[in-house]
Amino acid sequence: MKRSEVNQAVRDAIACFARCGWALPPRPRWDVTDFGRGDFRRWGLVLVNLAEEPEYCEKLMYAYRDQVTPAHTHRRKKEDIICRHGRLSLRLWADADRSTRPVAVPIDGRPITVPGGGAIDLPAGSRVTLTPGVYHEFWPSADDTVIGEVSTANDDAADNVFAEPVDRFCEIQEDEPPEVRLVGDSY
């Protein structure tokens, strides 16, 4: 992924957050990834770590309309994915094989069951609670969608299990100076 793509994604995320009334902390921790797929507009995510405590974490996320975060689950992390603004779509599976076996999850605290591979849509303000083992992919289905996450402690390097091989932290090609420091930057 090129640094110019990272910089543009960060600028677009900041602009979206501002339009939607979300203020960022003074020194946010940025993470931008194309999951090693080389097509950021199709597969990618901008994450802002708002809180990283031993017991919990909170993230604010941005993706372009229809930009997918690939199917994954977590070994230990339990999380609420929240549509803070716009509309968010998720596809769920009960296993790595992405079978049609039904998946039970609470939406806004009320249990629902969907067939494996079934999609759910979250309007602004709604949340889905995901436990370890529930595979999920998600994408904004409206412009200016702001995605929130509140979860148990998170280790992106060790806790993510993707259904297909991906590079969670992609290599950055330095074609212009960085506008923000990313979690994976070494300078």
Protein described:
This protein has 187 residues and is mainly β. Helices cover 9% and strands 40% of the residues. The chain contains one helix and 13 strands. The strands form three sheets. A six-stranded antiparallel β-sheet has the order 1-2-3-12-5-10. A hairpin with a 3-residue loop joins strand 2 (45-52) and strand 3 (56-62). The protein is globular and about 45 Å long.
In short:
The chain is mainly β and 187 residues long. It is 9% helix and 40% strand.
* Strand adjacency order, main sheet: 1-2-3-12-5-10
Point out poorly predicted stretches: none
Overall spatial form = globular
Please compute the radius of gyration using only Cα atoms. 16 Å
Query: Helix segment count?
Result: 1
Q: For the report, how would you describe the main beta sheet? A: 6 strands, antiparallel
Assembly of the depicted chains? single chain
Tell me how many strands there are.
Answer: 13
On the 0 to 100 scale, the average pLDDT is 95
Distance between the termini: 17 Å
Indicate the proportion of strand residues: 35-45%
Structural class: mainly beta
| Helix content range | under 10%
Summarize the helix and strand pattern as letters.
HEEEEEEEEEEEEE
